[in-house]
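From the pipeline queue, job 12 of 40. The input is one protein chain; the requested action is below.

Action: predict structure.
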Amino acid sequence: MQPFLVTGGTGKLGRAVVQRLDDGHREIRVLSRQAQPPASPTEYRHVVGDLRTGQGLDAAVRGVGAIVHCATTYGKGDITATRNLIDAALRRASTPHLVYISIVGVDVIPVPYYRDKLAVERMIADSGLPWTVQRTTQFHDLVASFFAWQRRFPLTVTLQRFRFQPIDVRDVADRLADLAVSDPAGRAPDIGGPQVRDMRDLATDYDKAHGLRRRVVPLRVPGRIARGFAEGANLVPKHVVGTFTFDDFLMEQRKDHGE
């Protein structure tokens, strides 16, 4: 059985993907920029490679049957990183199945980060490698982070007419692992979480879960980006995956922090 390589395998999504791919028989490689000795004899194999420069990627991809590409950054880093990964795979890995995680609405909402993700999608499709792209809605923790950085403020600011369909990272990991062991699918059907929620409602639930008594103030935002969110380009209500809601996430988070 050929090895699997997971980029971004030390991040939250990547770690969950690695755990789901581990059936006790597969060799799983986790790409890291620095050497990381295993914590135990059964720890996943960390291979050293830098997506930004391409250094070490030839050895990391050599012989792999599938690559789950979870690594991401901001700016133009995703484009450079993916180009380096594809080039290494074409040189050393004998056309592995490349699975990429993207975002619902990248082709409609003109956020600069989304444009880069769309460029990466197109690069993968044109690479000559067998490929699958899975777009998902925002993760629970990303939505929560918007409110978390405001916790010291006397009020909570939201964006008027913005709605989200947050999904649990573990449900996404399940899907990516299934795709990695299956035949290439091209553009897989988009997936989203179990509920479409108004941003103001999400903020109210966040504040309540953390014992915060603050006024929630919707801010009107003009422009094409705001229009894309207002029109629901980031939503896929007919393609629900999982049952773990944003409120479930908040409850779990409180338990994890002993609140």
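Job complete. The chain has a mean pLDDT of 93.
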